[in-house]
Design a protein that fits this description.
Elements: H1 7-14, E1 27-33, E2 38-47, E3 52-61, H2 64-77, H3 82-86, H4 90-96, H5 105-125, H6 137-144, E4 148-149, E5 154-155, E6 162-168, E7 171-176, H7 185-196, E8 204-208, H8 210-214
Length: about 220
């Protein structure tokens, strides 16, 4: 039996707004996992003076609802301040689409979570976060659970790509169980840095591969 999508969901699925990647983005966030069926990446360009979202784009891996909610959340957020955009709820996103089937409501939750994570990423980079907790190994590993292992679609902690982590005097070290010539080594290192470098008390992030240790 086909899922009863609204006309607006279908329209946003067929003609998504703001789809793609911002090369000069100020903030980025990825939530979800291909292994779970849905993943969204959001890119923000923010006016530094007014804290207004000047541009926003998304990339989506998933179903029609996932693409449609990524599209609508970018439409709702564009032109708003970070504080205004943070208040956008999954219910508002779903209602803007004319409703979502119960089995697809999680797509609007994912889109909103990704938007809020991107806003948090911007605020961390610019020292705007008030509830700053010291960076610990637990904080590092929690963030690394959002970095995907492209071979499995699961995170690099769960799949034991991360061998060990350490936090010492503002330096985070992540030991990765891959060689530097692995096909996804550069991608994984970049995502690790994107997750960890914005942390307010971190001065350096070191990613060590197996062949680095041998040198």
């Amino acid at each position: 039996m086909p899922i009863p999508y609204s006309e607006k969901v279908i329209e946003h699925f067929k003609n998504p707004r703001n789809v793609g990647r911002l090369e000069d983005y100020d903030a980025k966030a990825t939530e979800g996992s291909p292994a779970c069926g849905d993943m969204v990446t959001l890119y923000l360009k923010v006016d530094e003076e007014t804290k207004t979202i000047k541009d926003i784009k998304f990339e989506s891996y998933g179903c029609a609802s996932n693409i449609a909610t990524g599209s609508i959340i970018t439409e709702l957020a564009k032109g708003k301040t970070l504080d205004e955009a943070r208040k956008i709820s999954w219910k508002a996103a779903a209602e803007e689409l004319g409703g979502l089937p119960a089995v697809k409501v999680h797509c609007s939750v994912l889109a909103v979570d990704t938007l809020r994570a991107a806003i948090r990423n911007y605020e961390e980079k610019h020292g705007l976060v008030e509830d700053r907790e010291p960076t610990t190994v637990e904080v590092v590993e929690k963030r690394l659970r959002h970095v995907m292992n492209p071979l499995t679609g699961l995170d690099i902690v769960k799949t034991h790509v991360v061998k060990k982590t350490d936090v010492n005097n503002g330096v985070i070290t992540v030991w990765v169980d891959l060689s530097r010539d692995h096909q996804f080594a550069n991608n994984i290192e970049q995502e690790i840095r994107e997750r960890l470098e914005p942390l307010w008390d971190v001065a350096e992030v070191r990613v060590i591969f197996n062949d680095d240790e041998e040198e």
